[in-house]
Design goal:
single chain, alpha+beta, three-stranded antiparallel beta sheet, 11 helices, globular
């Protein structure tokens, strides 16, 4: 049997449909691995603290975006569902674009398929270097999110291509993190309806908040979300999001330096120095 025939046969052993909730690896929630952009982002990205280092280099197609991340969330969810069912898992996944679009709320238009192709190319092309360990192991050098990504087509009688399935191979780093660490958290179903900044605020809050509120320095939150514009602009966007209350499960409150120091009467949103993030479950029972 030729390799091509074997591959075509394997396409019918789909890992989809996804029958459980969407879940993601905690480190990918907590830290800025993706560009907050709907259009092509071609500048390198970097995040550094005393304990965490992330460096991201793009190809001419650009850096993988927060929307491209949907593919990784879908694959991670398939993998966790298999592990929960006691099944063996590998780094290779086969799934249909139709099921991916169903889960992420994307219409199955021709444009959607074109965007999916671009997303897979960016996920395979973007190069990441980090000191965050995965599965008890660290690694030096760069890796890409997908070491292999293929679109498999069939042809109609008229010779038109129709997408049959997608085959991806998950990178070693993320595969180890999910398989060994199992630090995965579920996502709110409305996540895919959010804009780029709102998505990152939700992920940071989801990864950091337990059952108690937390307070984060405004600049630290800006860096952790991967927001590339000024602190002033980030404060403006955060105030808008906080006022609208559109991040599912969490409320955000801007707190100025006077409010935290106790030296004078608090003035909310005026020169805010920190952000209080509170799970909505606490507000409901307050």
């Amino acid at each position: 049997m030729s390799q091509d025939v074997a591959i075509q046969g394997d396409l019918f052993a789909f890992d989809s449909p996804l029958l459980t909730e969407v879940r993601g690896e905690r480190s990918l929630m907590a830290f800025p691995f993706f560009a907050l952009s709907k259009t092509k982002w071609t500048k390198p990205l970097e995040y550094k603290t005393e304990s965490v280092s992330i460096e991201i280099v793009c190809t001419p197609k650009g850096v993988a975006t927060i929307y491209d991340k949907e593919v990784l969330l879908y694959v991670a969810s398939l993998m966790v569902a298999k592990l929960d069912a006691g099944e063996q898992v590998s780094q290779d996944f086969y799934f249909t674009a139709h099921d991916l679009f169903r889960v992420t709320g994307v219409s199955g238009s021709a444009r959607s398929y074109s965007r999916l192709s671009d997303a897979l190319e960016r996920l395979q092309g973007t190069q990441i270097k980090t000191n965050i360990e995965a599965g008890g192991e660290g690694q030096s050098g760069f890796f890409s999110w997908l070491s292999d990504a293929q679109l498999h087509y069939t042809k109609t009688a008229k010779g038109d291509k129709r997408l049959k399935a997608i085959k991806v191979r998950l990178c070693d780093w993320l595969y180890r993190a999910i398989l060994r660490d199992r630090r995965v958290l579920d996502y709110d179903p409305t996540y895919f309806q959010l804009g780029p900044i709102e998505r990152r605020l939700y992920e940071v809050a989801r990864s950091a908040c337990g059952h108690e509120p937390i307070e984060v320095e405004l600049e630290e939150l800006r860096l952790q979300t991967g927001y590339q514009s000024s602190l002033k602009h980030f404060r403006y966007e955060l105030k808008r999001i906080a006022d609208e209350g559109i991040v599912p499960g969490f409320s955000f409150e801007l707190v100025d330096s006077a409010a935290t120091s106790g030296t004078s009467r608090p003035r909310r949103n005026a020169g805010a120095a920190s952000v209080k993030i509170t799970p909505r479950t606490l507000l409901q029972h307050a």
